[in-house]
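User: Reviewer 2 asked us to show a designed sequence for the structure in our supplementary figure. I'm pasting the structure tokens here. Could you produce the per-position amino acids so we can include them in the response letter?
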């Protein structure tokens, strides 16, 4: 499948089948994240793959009670290292949130290619997620995503026109 087709067909999935993910499929999804670009190639990320039912339920609760999060066979928790990233992005910020976001998006696009569903979860209590998973101080949680075979086919959502999002030469 072409990358543009994968991008256009990806949807936020909120219902998952209980089917397990074959190891080779999971490895390709994780490889997509591993090969994503990062500032100075520092790769300031770690992904926690949560499969334990009790932990998934607790993560769903910590994700403002988005119970569907726990339905997927795996919940991916994307963590970043603020002290181990490029520190001068734009000369005003550290790169770790962008680096981790790119890696999560690569993971999500490969998941789509593999027939898996994902949903970017940004609504969560970081302190609760860190406590549930024993994430050390100095490590930040940027996002979570359920990962599994979809049990729904969400409809496409509208997109802004090119004229609304693109300009040439000047703002």
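Assistant: Here is a per-position design you can include in the supplement:
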């Amino acid at each position: 499948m072409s990358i543009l087709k994968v991008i256009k067909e990806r949807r936020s999935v909120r219902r998952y089948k209980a089917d397990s993910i074959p190891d080779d499929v999971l490895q390709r999804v994780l490889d997509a994240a591993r090969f994503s670009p990062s500032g100075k190639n520092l790769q300031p990320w770690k992904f926690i793959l949560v499969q334990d039912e009790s932990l998934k339920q607790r993560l769903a609760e910590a994700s403002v009670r988005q119970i569907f999060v726990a339905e997927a066979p795996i919940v991916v928790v994307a963590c970043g290292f603020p002290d181990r990233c490029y520190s001068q992005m734009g000369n005003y910020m550290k790169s770790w949130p962008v680096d981790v976001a790119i890696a999560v998006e690569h993971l999500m696009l490969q998941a789509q290619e593999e027939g898996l569903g994902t949903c970017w979860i940004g609504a969560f209590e970081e302190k609760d997620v860190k406590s549930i998973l024993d994430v050390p101080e100095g490590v930040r949680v940027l996002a979570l995503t359920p990962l599994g075979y979809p049990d729904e086919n969400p409809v496409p959502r509208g997109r802004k026109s090119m004229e609304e999002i693109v300009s040439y030469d000047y703002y």
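For the response letter, you might also mention the following. The two ends are 34 Å apart (CA to CA). Helices lie at 3-9, 23-34, 53-62, 96-113, 126-133, 162-165.
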